[in-house]
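Encode chain A's predicted structure.
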Amino acid sequence: MKPLSLLIEILIILGVTIKTIRAEKHNKRQKERNVTTQVSANEIKQYLPHTLEQRTSSNVINKRENLLEKKKNQRKIRIKGIQNKDILRNKNHLQKQAEKNFTDEGDQLFKMGIKVLQQSKSQKQKEEAYLLFAKAADMGNKAMEKMADALLFGNFGMQNIAAAIQLYESLAKEGSCKAQNALGFLSSYGIGMEYDQAKALIYYTFGSAGGSIMSQMILGYRYLSGINVLQNCEVALSYYKKVADHIADTFEKSEGVPVEKVRLTERPENLSSNSEILDWDIYQYYKFLAERGDVQIQVSLGQLHLIGRKGLDQDYHKALHYFLKAAKAGSANAMAFIGKMYLEGNAATPQNNATAFKYFSMAASKGNAIGLHGLGLLYFYGKGVPVNYAEALKYFQKAAEKGWPDAQFQLGFMYYSGSGIWKDYKLAFKYFYLASQSGQPLAIYYLAKMYATGTGVVRSCRTAVELYKGVCELGHWAEKFLTAYFAYKDGDIDSSLVQYALLAEMGYEVAQSNSAFILESKKANILEKEKMYPMALLLWNRAAIQGNAFARVKIGDYHYYGYGTKKDYQTAATHYSIAADKYHNAQAMFNLAYMYEHGLGIAKDIHLARRLYDMAAQTSPDAYIPVFFALMKLETMHLLRDILFFNFTMRWNWLKPDNTVGPYWDLFVIGLIVAGLILLLRNHRG
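Encoded structure for chain A:
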């Protein structure tokens, strides 16, 4: 048996040696490629299919080698037993380490490419960056996925959907769940691929099975809304729960960053000063006021920089700067936020429980809710002080009474989990509900959990799904709202549309209406013009189902004018009625009044038209002038009709015998007939 065992070991060593030689040859080729610094765009395009072909052929070779090695290893295990298992384990460890190093090198090349692209001032420098991206993609799936995402979404100004699809298809064959999700998204819109909802569903299903959280969220929304699947609340619940569990886990480790969702449907003059995004000039003015000593502005700027709100970058040093200024002026909020920074630890404030306790105590002594909550956290988790649930409960109650949602959530959690007190699901529900009204994400998550399992409340699948959906929409992918908005403002419509469309596919109502708004403008180039109105109508419909009144009016407009569908006044009137009755939308009232005035799709009713015009003016001041002119027109036309009707009536009345010869006109006529007959008889006799 020894010679056979030795032969097998030699074969294994030989296989490892061959792989090492190949790796060295690959490194040599990489060095030779790095000598080239300037490459034309055509060469980059040629490099991509070559990379894919090379990866495909290498995968085939690797599969064959793995199959041979698997057989050899099985024989080896049978021969040498436990001792050889250790050798195999070490070999697998080395192989995984080599793959990790290879992938890390690809990530470094990708980051280098981004740096070169951001600093590039000429086309040649951009081409250097693209070559680095292509090389990175050749070195591992992770870098290749980043490359494909950059090409799809137009990150760093390098949008190329056809190239992105090539990469995604190659990755999907290797089992990449991210690639399968991306291909599902592209198929669902027909962007660069054939529009095929059935194929999209297959891609999403495989992506979800492979661990794609985005695919799971998309499937949750599809089963909730019945998009190309039978509507099924329980299936939607299972998908949304998976995603929400992941999001809640990240929130428990660190505070989530709220997402600014700008609506493009707002008026253009209001878009630049949208409350969701802080205008640069206003930011400079706030900075000026902060430096002048405005404590409230100092605290506000500190909060914005602490978590990166309203389009500002997260900057702990700036946050600490403003909080310290405000704290010196006696601001309890600023003291509490400094305590929070030291409790969590960051680049500006290393984690320090003692310092956190100091600042929380200073704030709490002034009755500050955030400070009281901070002290409660320290006692609850035993950070810098012994664990003391009674003290934690006391501080949480004081902070909750002052309306601080995080403290309300902590109270709910203590009653839910029975931490230091008896479990009480009724009280847990009460505090979770109070905190959820302020948007506390973990409170919403636990409410969803209670409704999903019927814990402390009557089980409700629909309510649980809606709550879980709200938690899921706080995921990191929501950051695309900002990048999509800035791309739109910069005139990069295609990049903006792709990002909004992906978010729309995940069930974000704002993204659905924004995508529809961009599509109906027909400024995008990634879809054929004839497909834009039908796709926009589909998205307006999805947004309307989620409660968007403006979208409901839009659907009415599309049916009224025949955009993306046949003209249908009756359907248009139905949608206007829903928007007017359910959402009290002034535009819908105005449109419906016009249809009643002219009898379009509904029975003509001038009185109801007048009433709806008046209601539109009362509902919105913006509708006053259009309503004034509409009523003037209506009354003028009505007056003209009355005048014409009056003239016709007067003529008819003049012809009426009652008005000319009195009420006994019949006797008068009979008399005339008798007189005529007498005259005829006389003439006959004569």
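The CA atoms of residues 389 and 420 lie 5 Å apart.
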